[in-house]
Structure formats: C-alpha cells, structure tokens
Amino acid sequence: MVKIDIIGAPTAFGQPKLGVSLGPDAVRFSGLEENLKSLGHDVSDLGNVYGNYKTVYRKDNVKDGQGLINFDEVRDFSEHLSQAVDNTLKNKRFPFVIGGDHSLSIGSVSAVSHHYSNLGVLWIDAHGDINSSDTSPSGNIHGMPLGVLLGEGNEALVNINHKGAKLKHENIVLVGVRDLDAGEKAYIKKHGIKCYTMSDVARLGLDTVITKALKHLQECDGIHLSLDVDSLDPMEMPGTGTKVDGGIFLSDMLLALNILSKTEQLVSADLVEVNPLLDNRNKTAVKAVTLAEYIFGQSQI
C-alpha cells in the first residue's frame, strides 16, 4: 500500500498550445483516484496548484530578454508546485503530480531533491528536455526542465526551492527519446548522460531498457519518474502537443512500468503533457490513468 497525494499541476506556461492546462482534470474525470484506491492504496487528491497569476496559460506567450517564453509565470508556478510537493514529502506521502506541461518538473523535482541526497531520475520522453536559453530553438521552457535541474540556464529557475543544481548527470536515464535538438545531443555526449533512444528500445526491448536503467540508478537513495505521454506513439496518445512518430506502444510501456513498480526506490512521479483539446474522445486521459495504475502496481494477472 502506497500513501499517494495526487497533485494537479495545470500549467500551460511552458509551451504555446492551449489545452494542456486541462490535462489534470481530464485525467481525474477518467477515474484516476478511484482506480488507484481499487489497488489498495491510500489516495488523497489535493486538487490543483495555482500560482500568483489568475490564469495558467497566456495567449501572447511573451519572451523575456533571454528569449524564454512566459518566464515569470513559469518561475512563479514552479515555486508554488515545489512547496506543495515539499509538504507531501514532509507528510511521508508519495507525490504524484499530473500535468500540465513538462516545465512543471522544475518545481516537483526541485522539492523531491531536497529530501534525498542522491536522487535519480528516470525521464521517459520523446524529447530530451535538456535545453537552456542558449540552446533552445523555441524558448519554450517545457523543453528545458532537465537542463534547469542540472543547473543550466537562468539562476532564478535553477534556484527554485533551494540553491544550485538538483541532479547529477550520472543519476539521470533518458528513455524513448527520438527528437533531440543539436544542443541537447552535444550536452548529453559531453556529460555522458545515460540515454536510450527509440532505436535502443526497438533493439533491446523496453523491459530490458528499464531493467538496465534501474541497475544504473541502483546507488541512488530515491528515484523520481517523469513520464511524458508523448513518449508513446501518437497512435496511442493523440492528445498531446509535441507528437513524434515512432514511439513506444502501450503494451510495452505497461510491462516496463510493472517492472518499475516493484522497486522500493520509486519515491515520486510526474505524468505530463495530456492535452484534451488535441485528443480523440478523451482517449489519452483514459490511457494516462492506465499508466498510473501500472506505476502503482497494477498487473495483467
């Protein structure tokens, strides 16, 4: 039995497409809390986090002097989400953050890293999300959270929750990537970050990749899972904003998550980038709930 706090993070500030702010409620309406309780867990839905701004998205998506889109709003939201996650961990509960765009991981992981001295991160995503203001082609901060957590880029984002980098390069495993910017490729190679592309997944099998990833992170005192639904193939997950063909299939992902659920190292998780406005009859949110079930121990027998 896991004591789970569901924390909604309905931010759309990290990218320009409307609709991702509706993701947390779409996942809730698809039975998230009820289904996790049916697995025997102690589940509490803490509702949605909001910052000091009256909205969770901007239509104009203004760039600052560094070319970062909606910087003030992302920073503000990250601080508020970090506080919520911090409170959950102080209460010795598992923070399960549902988004919302992937910039939310700046806030969530910053809080988790405050409670663990050697935190590992399993980042399952079609993208590296390891850009900075210097390397990002777009200025969208949802493509930068991992870079920020490694201490790259704007200091105000890097210092969310507590000063300095929150993660070590050797404590990160990227899985399912197939759309890396040139700067990200160079950064990953320079710092020797463990990275399993979709070619690796196809060659080895996702279950083997996850097993290898857990072995790589075995010296960590906790593991945070950050799962972007765009890691799955668009045929599986149409309701997301940055679709990339050639992704993971649901059956393979469920097997991998079942393996992951058996480790006692998993201490927190994000499930991000569900966008109901781009979806087909809420298909993506329904499958997101299935992903959540397997994160927390569901199996086919």
TrEMBL record:
Pathway membership: Nitrogen metabolism; urea cycle; L-ornithine and urea from L-arginine: step 1/1
UniProt cofactor note: Binds 2 manganese ions per subunit.
Top enzyme category: hydrolase
InterPro entries per UniProt: Arginase, Ureohydrolase, Ureohydrolase_dom_sf, Ureohydrolase_Mn_BS
UniProt keyword list: Arginine metabolism, Hydrolase, Manganese, Metal-binding
GO molecular function terms attached to this record: arginase activity
The EC number(s) this enzyme carries: 3.5.3.1
Pfam families the UniProt entry points to: Arginase (PF00491)
Record SUPFAM superfamilies: Arginase/deacetylase
Cofactor(s) this protein cannot do without: Mn(2+)
Domain of life: Bacteria
Record's catalysed reaction(s): L-arginine + H2O = urea + L-ornithine
Family statement: Belongs to the arginase family.
Entry-linked PANTHER family: ARGINASE (PTHR43782:SF3)
Protein name, entry field: Arginase
